[in-house]
Design goal:
Elements lengths: L1 H13 L9 H11 L5 H15 L4 E3 L14 E3 H8 L3 H13 L4 E5 L5 H7 L4 E6 L2 H13 L5 E5 L2 H6 L12 E4 L5 H11 L8 E5 L5 H10 L7 E4 L3 E5 L7 E4 L3
Parallel strand pairs: 3-4, 3-6, 4-5, 6-7, 8-10
Antiparallel strand pairs: 1-2, 7-9, 8-9
Helix pairs in contact: 2-5, 3-5, 5-6, 9-10
Protein name: Methyltransferase
Organism: Nonlabens agnitus
InterPro entries: SAM-dependent_MTases_sf
């Protein structure tokens, strides 16, 4: 908690206002996307889906292959508590959908389906979403809720992230992804491994969004290494997320932006 508070205060102090951003690409992204409210109809869809999850509580067995939950330690958890403590907030889900739309994402990859909140937000704004979830019961719950919401462009796969990178999944995804959302594991060393393993799935127009970069000291160290990675040309720290870009025309620069 002290680690997060310290970095929140540092982030607030470092955050750029519009006039302090000298990258045209990041300036426009901040002005036209990060600081704007998303489409009202999409917002309503995201609210409805979240309410659907809230109103369909189910006891789920969790096979946690990552850093686990800071608030929920038991292996069997009620979905409503997972929603409250572990899923993307309403604001973050709306922002994820807005960012996906703004960047004209066609194919998105999500590492960590959980209850499908982020999956749904991505699906509202792009043509195809592939999402990986290690816990079969959680995968089943998210699939059911997305089906009930008539989401047809989300492909959910059961397996660990390492299964995905090792090519061991029954329905192994392939190709380039325009956006990758890493929303699981929350371990610094693992995040660095996954980032390196993602390289065959990325090009210079791709974007990687990492959730909870101040979850722990390890996650923060990983983020600080990634912003200096030779392939990363720009990074945005929103405190909740770390966003990485690979655009060759952009010189390497790190931005702190309050959203």
């Amino acid at each position: 908690m002290l680690h997060q508070l310290k970095h929140y205060l540092k982030h607030h102090w470092k955050s750029f206002h519009l006039h302090g951003i000298h990258s045209p690409f990041v300036f426009t992204l901040n002005r036209d996307c990060l600081q704007k409210r998303s489409n009202l109809a999409v917002n309503e869809e995201i609210v409805r889906f979240r309410e659907s999850v809230k109103n369909h509580p189910q006891l789920l067995h969790i096979e946690d292959h990552g850093a686990g939950s800071k608030r929920l330690q038991e292996n069997t958890r009620i979905s409503s508590k997972i929603l409250k403590h572990n899923c993307s907030s309403l604001k973050r889900a709306q922002l994820l959908s807005l960012l996906t739309h703004y960047l004209d994402v066609q194919r998105a990859l999500e590492l960590g389906t959980s209850l499908g909140i982020g999956t749904h937000a991505l699906a509202m704004a792009c043509q195809q979403v592939t999402s990986i979830e290690a816990s079969p019961e959680v995968h089943g719950y998210a699939s059911a809720r997305l089906k009930a919401a008539r989401v047809k462009n989300a492909h959910l796969i059961t397996g660990t992230f390492q299964d995905f990178f090792d090519g061991n999944l029954h329905e192994q995804p392939s190709g380039i992804y325009d956006l990758v959302f890493i929303d699981g594991h929350h371990d610094g060393a693992a995040t660095l491994r996954y980032f390196e393993a993602l390289q065959p799935f990325l090009n210079e127009q791709s974007v990687v969004v990492i959730d909870d970069i101040y979850w722990s000291k390890g996650m923060t160290r990983a983020w600080e290494q990634l912003i200096h990675h030779p392939k990363v040309t720009a990074s945005i720290d929103t405190y909740q997320w770390g966003i990485l870009f690979f655009r060759k025309e952009q010189r390497q620069q790190a931005f702190h932006i309050h959203v």
